[in-house]
Amino acid sequence: MTGLTLTALHATHGRSPVLDGIDLTVEDGDLACILGPSGCGKSTLLRVVAGFHPAAAGQVVLHGRVLDDGRRRLPAERRNIGLVPQDGALFPHLTVAANIGFGLPRAQRRERVGELLELVGLGGLGERRPHQLSGGQQQRVALARALAPRPGLLLLDEPFAALDAALRAELRREVAATLRQAGTTAILVTHDQDEALSFADTVAVLRDGRIAQAGTPDTLYHRPADASVARVLGEANLVPAELTGARARTAFGTLPVATTAPTSRRGLALLRPRQLRLTADPAPGAVRARVLGSDFRGHDHRIELRPEGTGLPDTLIAYSELPWGPGEAYVGAAGPVHVVPEAAGSA
């Protein structure tokens, strides 16, 4: 069953267009993510779905009910949509239990609040105030409060942004598990590709008010539609390639092609940093490069390189288990590769 459907959705701020023909479907019970940089229209899209901003044209449909068609708009309070804001927005003078039960009919509060406290892992903390909780616990309370009225759709507006990296990853996993357990359809808005890839069933990359590509995390990471999407989903080395059947001729030699997006014989071969191999001595298909820097990241080293010769970008990024100091190295590549169009969307 389809949960949320956006069709040819447009929105403006005054006379300035912000959303330019958004088409997106989120199946009932799925977790979706809108991914993109600041200013691409993510927050406006969230506000249009929630009912805080009008659509200029197009449709917002939730479980078969039209919420906005550019002419008639259902008020936010009648949409059965929950929202978890970035800062949690808890009432500081109320207990955790009172925050979660706020707005529920009195007869339902005790049972529903107890159920949600257990669901979000805060059993026994109902009488505490928000200031007595950690940042992660406060966001769990905000999640529980949003789930309390059993919304048909839950919107999460970068709810992990203010947390430190380790807590952010832990809470992200917990929230995803909680939503799946509750069977809630949800949309997360973020600019963090790790967050998008690990959280969602469907990721939609938003660029300049349009969805550049939507699909599973695996599809977008390994088979992006263009160079821009490739970069949004993680560090990418994009190397000019000439296609001949299922092979791509590059500066690294001829590499097998897994999938291809271009219709011409030329394109850009996508090489993720883990596909590059560094050696101290020349090897078949390797190019000479200068190591510009090496950053230790615990599990590996991120190596920045300046390749010599033509047919390669100015800078290459490789991940290596071993450290590399400044100096000369040789870089080879391992296929198969995905090839994206040479020009469109590559900026």
TrEMBL record:
One of its GO terms (molecular function) is ATP hydrolysis activity. It holds the Pfam family ABC_tran. The lineage of its organism: Bacteria, Bacillati, Actinomycetota, Actinomycetes, Kitasatosporales. SMART domains: AAA. Residues 4-233 form the ABC transporter domain. Keywords: ATP-binding, Cell inner membrane, Cell membrane, Ion transport, Iron, Iron transport, Membrane, Nucleotide-binding, Translocase, Transport. It is an enzyme of class 7 (translocase). The keyword Protein biosynthesis does not apply. This is ABC-type quaternary amine transporter. It comes from Streptomyces kaniharaensis. It comes from the Bacteria. GO terms for cellular component: membrane. SUPFAM superfamilies: MOP-like, P-loop containing nucleoside triphosphate hydrolases. Its EC number is 7.6.2.9.
